[in-house]
Design a protein that fits this description.
Length: 393
């Protein structure tokens, strides 16, 4: 199939909910992908932070094939080994229990339900404070939790019980707390909001506020989790542990898998029948996740993410003095944003034309999400391409 055929079929048969890039991707390996015309691209978008271990990772593919040949699906009223192994790895690292689902939105929906269940049994509390410029998913409740009106318009009335504070502003959080507040929900690093990094004092302050007011602290690590920032979980950078945490994207190594983790005393508020997910913890998806987590540990990929991310950040930071339209460069590990004085959509297109796949978020922030397996030569290649593009503006 060529690109023209694909475009015609896409327009005829698929909802127009995405602004497609003009590519039909057919193959991937490591940090690279190829389109139907045979063109090769450096993939520093990683399927929107999903392919943390690169494209077509050998260990993940092997795990998927082996599991697909044994048992592919069963109801959650039965146990399967892949689910148990992944739960053990996550649970021991976090210090809690795991609920498996299919996506980040579903994981966040579960976290919201858990917080409200806890709140209903602790004084009838139900309100949740989230942050402006946050992003928590596309369900009706998670777009309400998302502190960006552009995702909410046209879907009113929204789910009641949400208030929005300013990110990195403890005072704005404190003003919203009431006897009805059951949780504060935050991304340690806002991805869709523009790669906005939580200040250590802010994240620590949220923990103190929650402890002082008997409120749950929820971290949305759907994008930051599973090694993206150079730690398995981003909260480890801040020395603050949440009561509840959500994961997805990179967890399944390219297959749909989400998870909600909670400390044992909070997890216990969900009883049989309170929550469920038909495909959550699917054996094949969990086999892939087990391979992801084992490879991160065995191949020392957190070290690589931290080291390569530091080099990439340093090289891109040089753009701040070199180009007047570069307002700020920020990031942690393999999650980096270049904030511009103008819209960044054209730069994404120019990068694609030069063989580099990136994206633009919050209108003016170029976002780079390389695989945590990326090599130095690939880091340098991405910087060279961006430098050439910026020099031409």
């Amino acid at each position: 199939m060529d690109y023209k055929q694909a475009k015609n079929m896409d327009e005829k048969y698929i909802f127009s909910t995405y602004k497609r890039q003009p590519l039909l991707l057919v193959k991937g390996k490591g940090s690279w992908v190829w389109d139907s015309a045979g063109n090769k691209y450096l993939d520093f978008f990683s399927g929107l932070a999903v392919n943390n271990l690169g494209n077509n990772n050998t260990k993940i593919v092997k795990a998927i094939k082996e599991q697909a040949g044994t048992i592919m699906h069963t109801s959650n009223i039965f146990m399967t080994e892949p689910m148990l192994y992944v739960a053990k790895i996550l649970g021991e690292h976090f210090g809690g229990k795991v609920f498996f689902c299919n996506s980040g939105a579903e994981a966040n929906e579960g976290a919201i339900k858990l917080a409200r269940k806890w709140g209903s049994e602790n004084g009838g509390k139900f309100e949740i404070i989230t942050m402006e410029e946050s992003f928590h998913g596309r369900t009706l409740t998670t777009i309400t939790a998302t502190g960006q009106t552009k995702y909410q318009q046209g879907f009113e009335p929204l789910t009641p019980g949400f208030k929005y504070a300013k990110f990195n502003d403890l005072g704005s959080v404190t003003k919203l707390i009431s006897k009805k507040t059951c949780a504060i929900m935050v991304e340690p690093i806002q991805g869709e909001g523009g790669v906005n990094i939580g200040e250590i004092s802010f994240i620590k302050g949220l923990r103190e506020i929650c402890d002082d007011n008997n409120i749950l602290l929820i971290f949305d690590e759907v994008q930051t989790g599973i090694g993206r920032t150079g730690k398995l979980f981003a909260y480890e950078h801040f020395g603050v542990k949440p009561d509840v945490m959500t994961l997805a994207k990179a967890l399944g190594g390219g297959l749909p898998l989400g998870a909600m983790l909670a400390i044992p005393e909070i997890a216990g508020y969900f009883k049989p029948g309170n929550h469920a997910s038909t495909f959550g913890g699917n054996p094949v998806c969990c086999a892939a996740a087990k391979a992801v987590l084992q490879s991160i540990a065995e191949d020392k990929l957190l070290d690589n993410a931290a080291r390569m991310g530091k080099i990439l950040l340093e090289k891109l930071t040089n753009f701040e003095g070199k180009y007047k339209f570069v307002k700020d460069v920020r990031g942690k590990g393999m999650m980096i944003g270049i904030e511009l004085e103008m819209a960044g959509a054209d730069i994404v297109e120019k990068a694609r034309d030069k063989g580099l796949l990136i994206n633009c978020t919050a209108d003016k922030v170029i976002r780079l999400l390389p695989p945590i397996t990326a090599k130095l030569s690939e880091i340098k290649a991405s910087v060279k391409i961006l430098d050439e593009i910026f020099a031409s503006i």
